Amino acid sequence: MAPLVLFSVENKIAVITLNRPERRNAINQKLLIRFFDALDAVTSRNDIRVAIITGNGPSFCAGLDLDSIGKENFLDPRGDGRDLPDMMRSCQKPLIGAVNGHAITGGFALALNCDFIIAAENAQFTDTHAREGIHPGWGMTQLLQQTVGLRRAKQISFACQPIFAHTALAWGLVNEVLPREHLLDRAKTIAAQIVQANPQLLGVIKTLIENRNCSLLEQAFDKEKSGFKQFLKNQIIKLKP
């Protein structure tokens, strides 16, 4: 069986690739554990300065695997008390989202948790929490409005319609749009530029930038997370005979 997450390192750049293309890289607990392990490696290894997160196949990530909701642990997949926003936000090294296709709901939230996003021309960003009846839990309600503004965030999350790459660029959701075949090369070029920075100061600057709305964001994250916990508990109850 192919690994659910591919991980490679070259020239101090890590590439983390979600590798479940037959399910559009939908997230189950096993994939989430492998993804967390990759993030731990980025954080701990001195030979890594920056990481690129992308997907294998036509999609970046289709979000939570709907067949796994209520059956698998998405809040604490490894049993160490850490969820996806905890893992990504605690990484002091830059995380570049290279969105190669569909980024849907939880996959969209994963991309938003990256430091910035570059996208292929065929990329689509869709928040279907409201349509699918899934409580957000990875920062969608906060990070999206922080990125595109309150009114656009409401449109995206209420209408549940895809935002295509060039609209995402115009709205400030992504930094660059380019042909799919050039996406990873461009991400590596940007990463190579980041590698040239002083690593200690880079971490300081990242923290200072993120401190802009930190206290309010922490409270909002906690409120969203508590609702997500209750949603998952309710799904487990429904499955019991």
Number of domains: 1
Largest sheet: 6 strands, mixed
At CATH level 3, the topology is 2-enoyl-CoA Hydratase, Chain A, domain 1
How many E-type strands?
10
How much helical structure, as a percent, in the residues? 40-55%
SS content category: alpha/beta
Oligomer state equals single chain
Order of helices and strands: EEHEEHEEHEEHHHEHEHHH
The CATH superfamily label reads: 2-enoyl-CoA Hydratase, Chain A, domain 1
Spatial strand sequence of the major β-sheet: 1-2-3-5-7-10
Mean pLDDT: 94
Q: Rg, please?
A: 17 Å
| Tally of helical runs | 10
Which runs of at least 5 residues are low in confidence (pLDDT < 50)? Answer: none
At the first level of CATH, the class is: Alpha Beta
Please state roughly what percent of the residues sit in beta strands, choosing from under 5%, 5-15%, 15-25%, 25-35%, 35-45% or over 45%. Answer: 15-25%
N-to-C span: 33 Å
Descriptive keywords:
6-stranded mixed sheet; 17% strand; 241 residues; globular; single chain; 47% helix; 4-stranded mixed sheet; 2-enoyl-CoA Hydratase, Chain A, domain 1
Report on the architecture of this protein.
The chain has helices at 29-44, 84-90, 106-112, 129-132, 140-148, 150-159, 165-170, 180-195, 199-210, 214-239, and strands at 5-10, 13-18, 50-55, 59-61, 95-99, 102-104, 116-120, 124-126, 163-164, 176-178. It has 241 residues and is α/β, with parallel strands linked by helices. The chain has one domain: Alpha-Beta Complex (2-enoyl-CoA Hydratase, Chain A, domain 1). It has a 6-stranded mixed β-sheet, sandwiched between helices. Strands 4-6-8-9 form a 4-stranded mixed β-sheet. Helix 1 (29-44) links the parallel strand 2 (13-18) and strand 3 (50-55). Helix 3 crosses helix 5 (140-148) and helix 5 (140-148) crosses helix 6 (150-159).
